[in-house]
Amino acid sequence: MTSTLLMNVDLWPGEGPSIQKAVSILITNGRVAEIGPAAKLVAPQNATIVDCEGVTAIPGLSDVHVHLTTNSDMSRIVDNATYRAMVPGTEKLLHGVRNGLRALAAGFTTLRIMGHRDSGDIELRNCIDRGLLPGPRLSVAPWVISMTGGRGDLFYPAAWARQPLDTADGVDECRLVVRAHRKLGADFIKFTASAGTQSAGDKVHWPNYTLEEMKVIVSEAHDYDMKVAAHAHSTEGIRRVLAAGIDTVEHGSFMDDGCIETMLKQDTILVPTLSISDFVIHNSERSGARPEGITKMKEVREVRRRNLKKAIKAGVKIAMGTDSSGNLCPFGNHARELELYVELGMSPLEALETATVRAAEALGREDVTGLLTKDAIADVVLLNSNPLEDIGVLRREGGIRAVYKDGIDVSNPWPAVF
């Protein structure tokens, strides 16, 4: 039995405005065994004792929209289409290992992966779960379901040979590809319901897929207890996915008042992903984005921010996702998304909850992540100031004292990657 006592720490449990002052957290075999007053909770014999005076403990955070197996080498920028089409899957997997460690050191112990075909996302998840490699807890969709000429298809050059099921058209093919994803070990399903900002040759307001096709994707996934995420920028695309019973709307740029009303009525979760446009616009072509993509992001940015403000004010459920994608939006910078939410009207508390309890709801893993309470899995981030008052502490140099996943200190799992 291995035990660690985090002694004399202030605790924010992952929801609500209250912080428990001067408590100790006893971690045993990867779980929170006890939380109690620092003066009364005694460490077991041979336990590791960590003095946390002046430190605030929060749960390990979750980013529910990332592309893990993307370029991790910021000294060698590669445009998205070239990377996807030309880099071998084994190399993509190794980039994914590095990206995961960066997320872990930044306090993000759980990631929801929008996977790339033949890049090893599923295999990496399995190795981490078995303790063979360090890394965040992963929830994976093996690749995106896209119609021919849709956003996913248009990431690749037109002349690039497609594999079977790279695209799915019509109700029968959509049903088949969901079943193929499930066979591969998918945790959830992702499909494209609209054009995108980084895909080539489309316009963001275009929808993808008919309502009938979307309904079969959603119903087939739900039959096997898998949640469904839909890439949806356009108003019509958002309307269709809501009518299909989607679980999470990814991006949601052009949602109108009707979409917001439906999301509230249906309890649909929005994943805004502001970080990627924030990074690309600030870094322009240095990010590896192509001119067409930069232009589309600039066109969408203010509309997206304005509509997200409306959604926040209306009370739409929001889960934090960055769209971290290699050099387009580097891993390790995830908490920038929380700062952007605060800029648009959330309190630091509300922003943090998007990465704890709301993210856990989006993942469907409330039993695994989101709260730091007795009997919870011991994913803990120790911060040098109170994030309810100082949301910037998560990104400030020296702001994070330590990160624990499953009760193990993973603060610096592989120094060479940083």
From TrEMBL:
The keyword Chloroplast is assigned to this record: no
Gene3D superfamilies xrefs: Metal-dependent hydrolases (3.20.20.140), Urease, subunit C, domain 1 (2.30.40.10)
Pfam families attached to this UniProt entry: Amidohydro_1
Amidohydrolase-related domain sequence ranges: 57-407
Keyword Acetylation: no
InterPro entries found in the cross-reference section: Amidohydro-rel (IPR006680), Metal-dep_hydrolase_composite (IPR011059), Metal_Hydrolase (IPR032466), Metallo-dep_Hydrolase (IPR051781), OTAase-like (IPR057744)
Sorted UniProt keywords: Plasmid
Protein name: Amidohydrolase family protein
Protein's organism: Roseovarius pelagicus
